[in-house]
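An example makes the point: we print one protein in full, the chain in one-letter code, the fold tokenised, without further comment:
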Amino acid sequence: MNYRPLYILRAEHDYFQDGICRALRFRISPEGADLWRRRALLLRQLDVNEWAVLYDSDGAGVDTVSDALLLEMDLEDPAFVLYTKWDGLRPDSAYTLDLPADGPDTAALFREASPKRKIGAGFCRVRIRLAGELVEAAQKGEPMRFTMHFHAPECRWEYLVVPRADAPGEGKYILEEGDGKLHFSPFKSVRMYGRDMLRSVSREAVPMRERYGYKLKLSLTTGDEGGRKQPVLKRVDPPEPGRFMDTEPGLCRQVCTL
């Protein structure tokens, strides 16, 4: 047998560093496994986020009129729904995706097939139609490929500071980004989680990322405006999506305890 790529699937996501999406996995659907065997086709993972359908170039080939391969796409990261820009996404639903396909928004290509997935079924059933142009491209050594490119939503960063009992009140703390890339509102007193806290929100909306290059610090001002700043927290961590599920839409929350 002489196996060569027939079709290539790749997953990219703006949330991950270098755009390499590690939240998805493909496998042959049990319902379509018989066709894979009859046509002597294989599914192989080429990289963390790339898979290839392989065919035997010395074999009988496929039926370009009727053959359609079935794959199951699984979500390996439950937080995918939190850092993916996808209107109406319901992780418990069953989706379908027909390939080959093309479009500026990958999420728009998915169709909801059922509000509830069957046991053992993947998040999405992928159907690859083995049309003539797809097979011809593979025979020429230029297999067609489909790249799923997902985008991350933007949100403003909300910080809640739990001060010490003897700490100053609102207006005395300042949250700053070292390079001036983010700007935060003055801290105001709020009552949340049964405690008195201080709250500040970024003026800018930030695209969600696995890692950020921001350098946040919390300082305490002394005297009038422009007075000396006393460092309180030299390093303030960015918020994590989904950590506080009661956050208002469009906000991502972090809580700091002094």
Observations:
- Residues 3-150 form one domain.
- The mean pLDDT is 92.
